[in-house]
Amino acid sequence: MPHQLFWKIPFCGLIVLLVLLLLLDQQVRRRDAALMLPILELPSQPGAQPGALTERILAGFDQPLPDHPSYSPSRRIRALAPPRHLWHGLRPRTAHVFRPDGMSGPRPLILLFHGAGRDGLSQIEMWEATARRHGLILLAPNSADDTWATDHPEPALLLRLIEDLTAETPIDRNRIFLFGHSDGAAMAQILLNRSAGPWRAAALHAGGIQRGAMQPATEPKPMRLYAGALDSTFPPALLRDRVARPMAELGHPTEFLLLPGHTHWFYDAGPRIAEHAWIWMASLAEPH
Fold first, then answer.
1. Mind spelling out the 3-state secondary structure of the chain?
2. Least CB-packed of 30, 125, 158, 260 within 10 Å?
3. pTM of the entire structure?
């Protein structure tokens, strides 16, 4: 009898722990869902007034696709921004943070979303020079799988990461921005368009979601979209007509920037695009 009781106690404890973990996971999922706007199925539903769509051709970012495209984050950047580990419900998650030395006072924060099959370090490396030059804090979460689950975004995870970071270093809550490349561009766009969060604007490179996943804007937050004229993965006509134009129609002031001679490849022109994107973001935060 004592021997049987010995096995029953740990088993019961395991069941209780499992139930608690499931309840925690459900709580996290409910919070994520509560921070997202549902897609309105009826196009006649009232929405925001249309925003402006500005189109420009931007020279100086020519970047033909290399014959053998290859990129991986350097050892230096891996040492500079090691992964941070946390749990989001039942899922283990990781993120990377970069803070330049010598900063004082609350600093702007850029949330970075990597492309499919990569991790946050790829974006940290592209943005590092801009972050050092302007005193920016970079936060780059890793997707749970190879791609971002845009059908189940996790704004609660991002808010938790921001709060954890705020406990370590002062962040200017009025200057939090989103940037994403390719698959990460879709995540940045859906967070801007359909989630409740402190982000002020989003810059996208070579990607995005299409009209069926968008919602009339409750806040007219600006969006900028960089598109390579030679991009065969996300052709510029598709990005202009199915991403940029619908976002403007749904209320977001939107810029569409066409880059002649540029392809989908991000990892050579990335630092220049990061600098260009930050100058735009900084202008949005300036008093008028």
1. CHHHHHHHHHHHHHHHHHHHHHHHHHHHHHHHHHCECCCCCCCCCCCCCCCCEEEEECCCCCECCCCCCCCCCCHHHHHHCCCEEEEECCEEEEEEEECCCCCCCCEEEEEEECCCCCCHHHHHHHHHHHHHHHCCEEEEECCCCCCCCCCCCCHHHHHHHHHHHHCCCCEEEEEEEEEEECHHHHHHHHHHHHECCCCCEEEEECCCCCHHHCCCCCCCCCEEEEEECCCCCCCHHHHHHHHHHHHHHCCCCEEEEEECCECCCCCCCHHHHHHHHHHHHHHHHCCC
2. 30
3. 0.88
